Amino acid sequence: MEAVPRKTTIREVAQAASVGIGTISRVLNSSSQVSRETRARVLEAIRRLGFRPNAQARRILKRRAEMVCFLLSNRDFLHPFHARILQGVESYASGLKQHVLFAALHYSPRTPPDRIDLPPVLQEHGLIDGLILAGTIYPNLLRRIESINMPFVAFSNNVVGMGDEEQFDQVGFDDFNGTLHATRHLIGKGHRHIVFAADVSYPWLRRRFEGYRQAMRENKLKHVLITSRNPQSFVDFGQKSAGRILSRQPRPTAAVAGNDEIAYGLWRSLRRQGVKVPDDISLVGFDDREEAVLMDPPLSTVRVDKEEIGETCMKMLLERLHHPRMTFSQRILPTEFVIRGTVRQL
Amino acid sequence: MEAVPRKTTIREVAQAASVGIGTISRVLNSSSQVSRETRARVLEAIRRLGFRPNAQARRILKRRAEMVCFLLSNRDFLHPFHARILQGVESYASGLKQHVLFAALHYSPRTPPDRIDLPPVLQEHGLIDGLILAGTIYPNLLRRIESINMPFVAFSNNVVGMGDEEQFDQVGFDDFNGTLHATRHLIGKGHRHIVFAADVSYPWLRRRFEGYRQAMRENKLKHVLITSRNPQSFVDFGQKSAGRILSRQPRPTAAVAGNDEIAYGLWRSLRRQGVKVPDDISLVGFDDREEAVLMDPPLSTVRVDKEEIGETCMKMLLERLHHPRMTFSQRILPTEFVIRGTVRQL
DNA sequence: TTAGGGTGTGGAACCAGTTCCAAGGATTTT
DNA sequence: AAAATCCTTGGAACTGGTTCCACACCCTAA
Predict the structure, then answer these.
(1) Which tens digit of pLDDT belongs to each residue from A43-75?
(2) Domain A67-173+307-334 has CATH 3.40.50.2300
(3) How many CB pairs under 8 A join A and B?
(4) Residue A150's closest CA among A165, A164, A163, A169?
(5) CB-based contact (8 Å) between A78 and chain B?
(6) How far off is chain A from B152, nearest CA to CA, in Å?
(7) What is the β-pairing status of strands B152-155 and B99-105?
(8) Interval B94-103: pLDDT, tens
(9) Architecture of domain A10-53 in CATH?
(10) Cβ–Cβ contact A274 with B under 8 A
(11) Tally of CA atoms within 13 A in the half-sphere of A42 that contains its CB
C-alpha cells in the first residue's frame, strides 16, 4: 500500500501562526477566550495551509466517537420502510455533527448469545458510541449487545419473544390504535362485516389484530381473522386470502389488512376475480408504504412516520449516552389513518 | 455529560500477562512471531480482562480509517434502487473489515464548488478513507470533492453535464445495450410500431433512448419519442404519456418506457382507459425495481444488478486507496432483459 | 572459544490531537 | 506603589495504540 501523504498537523499550524499548539486547539474548539487578533491569525493560517483536524486523535481524548451504528438485522434487504428510518436517523444526527454507520447482520434466534457473530464495528471499541437496532430483534441478540456494554435503542415493533421484564430503550409506533382507528372508520362508513387478514404469529400483526378486535367488540360486531397457508410473502398471503374472504357468508363488505403488502395482494387478487375495490369491497392497509399511493385506487391506510421513528431513536440514544444511568424508556409514536380511495360509504 | 468508564488498555493487559506492550500489539495483529506460550498467556489475559482494542488509536498510526462514506446526493429519499447499492457496498465492505458510513447531501448544480456545504464527515480528516458517490452528480460537486483530496468512486449513471475530459473512477450499468436488447426483443416478437417514452433531457434516459433508436434503425423502423409536459413524477409522466401513445396513427403495438416508474404510470393509465397490457399493447420497462414483479401482469424489464454496482464501487475504491496514482477507470456493468408478462407475440 | 545468525521480547518514541498548569502581562483594587 | 485579579498564552503531559531498535538468548559454524 502506498504511503498516504502526511496531512498538515496542529503543530505546523501553530508554527505558521507563531502561536502555541494549545491556542490552535482552543480556536478549533471555539472554547475558552482567545483574543480577537490571535484567533484571526490562527484562522488565517488554517485556511492557508488547508488544515483539517484529524478526527481520530480528538476522539481518543474525548472518549467519544460521535458516531452511532444503524444495525439492520435479519432483513434480506433494506426496505423503504427501514430506509426511511435510517434517513430519519441520519438527518437528525448530521445536524448534531454525529455520524451514522450502516451495518447489517443475519442471525438465528436460536444461536446462543455468545455465539452471535457481530459485525466488525462492534468488535473493536471506541468506533461507535451506541447502536440503533432495526430489523427483527430476538432476545439472544439483546443479550449479546448487552454483553459488550454497548448502549442501544431498539425500534421496538419488530421485537419478538421478549418478556415484560426486559428493560431497554425502545421506540415504536402504535399498532393497536392504528387498526383501532382504521376499523372504526370502516364502521363509521356503515360497514358491519369486516374481516382482518394477517398472520398473527408476528407480534406486531397480533397487536394490529387486537386493535381491530377492540373496534369490533365496542360495536358489538363479530371479528373474523383470515389467514392462509404457507404464504411465500406478505403479498402472496394477501392473494391467497382473497378467496377465503369471498367465500364467506355473508360476504364481508370490508377487509383490514395487517399491512400494505397484504392489502396489495388482496387487491390484486380481488381485481383478477372481477371484484372491485372499493365498489364491491372496501380495503384498508397499514404502514403507508410508497406503493400505497400507486395502487389504483390509492390505498387508505395507517400512516407511520418512519423518519420520526429514526429521529426519535437517535434522540433517545444521545440521551442515553449523556446519562448512562437514566432509567430505560419506551416511546410509542402515534399513527394516523390516511383516507384515500379504497373505502366506500355503505 | 457523565464520564465514560475507562476501558482496559493494552498496558493493563501487558501488566496482567507479565509481558511488554509490544508483545500485546504483536499478538493483536497476529503478525511477527510470538512464542506459543507467550501468545497463549496474552490471549488468556485479553479474555479475562474483556479487552477490546481501541479503534481510534490504531487508526492514527495506521493512517487508515478503514471506513468509507456512502454519500447519497440530491435524493429526497433513499430509494430501493440506491438502498440496494448501499447494501452491495456494505456486504462487500464488511467482509474486508471495512466500515460504511451513510450520509446525505442536498446541493444545487449552480452553487460554486467552494460554497457547497459538505456533510460533517467530510469536514474533518482521517474519519473516512474514501467516498462512494451515489445520487445525482453535477460537475460542481466533483470539483468540491477533489478540492479536499478525497479519493472517490462515482456511480456514473446519474452523472450530469460532464465533459469527456472528466477523469474519475466510475461504475455504471449499460443503459444503451439495455434498451437495445429490450427493443430487439419486441421486434423479434413481431412488433413494428414501437414508441419510447421518457424525458430525454436526463442523460441516462437519453442513452436508453439511443439504444432503442439503434434497434429501430437496424431494422429500418421509425423511432417515435413520447414526452409529456410538466410531469409531477416519473409515474405521472407515464400516465400523461398514455394518451399521446393511444392517439397515434397507426396505433403503436408496443412501448419502451425509460424506466419502471414510467412503465407503471403508462400501465395504470392504459388500464383505466380499457387498454389491456399486453393484449392491446406490449410494454417494457427499465431498472427492475421491486414493483415490477408486483405489476399485473408482471413487467418485462431490463434488470440492473444494483448490489453488484455497490460491490464494484467498493472494490474500485479500495484499489484506488491502495494505488493512489493508478489511472482512472470506468466500469460498465451489463444489464439483462427479463421476460415476464407484458410482451406478447404479434 | 568466538563469531554469526535467527528468534523472541521490552519499551522508548511516536501519532495528532486535548488538557491543564504555570506564567506573563494588563488591569483593577487596596 | 504594591497586591490581587483577570485574561491570554505556551507547552509538557497525556490518550492508547504501533513501530522499531536494542538486547538477550539459543543454536550453529569456524
Answers:
(1) 999 999 888 899 899 998 888 999 999 999 999
(2) yes
(3) 161
(4) A169
(5) yes
(6) 15
(7) unpaired
(8) 999 999 999 9
(9) Orthogonal Bundle (1.10)
(10) no
(11) 22
